[in-house]
Amino acid sequence: FPVTILDVKKIKVYNVSCVGAGFPNFLDYHKRIGLKLDPDLVIVNYTDVDWPRTEGAHLADQDMMFDQAAKCLRQIKETSKKFLITLMPTYWDLIPEVTQDKNTVAFMKKYPEFIVHILKNRMPLAKGEEFIEKWYSVPWDAHMSDLGGEFYARAMAGFVAQNLGQNILFNDVMTPNLEKLIKLKNQNPKQ
Q: CA 180, CA 136: separation in Å to the nearest integer?
């Protein structure tokens, strides 16, 4: 739906793929759905688990993974007005320690035409491991919890605003939802 952000024209925001499904899936969704929406901005948001995923068997060779990703990203970029790539942190990227994103760095070295924006650098990592663990639904799975989604949404919003010519940080903006989530997590840390 159209929204007004700051003094920028109305834009539409759609989520038309699934992080973790792989770069071929991103391209497929872009071709089948995304192009019909005529977006002003396309963001490919991936995690490290996307590298090996294909329409068939997972890839094991790093060069093959990177070649597949580059091929898909090139096709998305060629059909997009504005195109950005972001890396979403998984639980294992932050716990027990913050990783160096070796695959993404190696990919950018091999394919310098692609600049990947590492969004964990926009998240409040200084709050420490105990707080960061609450961003994920561990021990059940390592998907982001509602609290993690709040922080990641703020990181993404700041990134999008910056790429629309605004410099706004959303990390410390309190919302009723965030206050409730922090209170709930502090009362029952296993949820």
A: 16
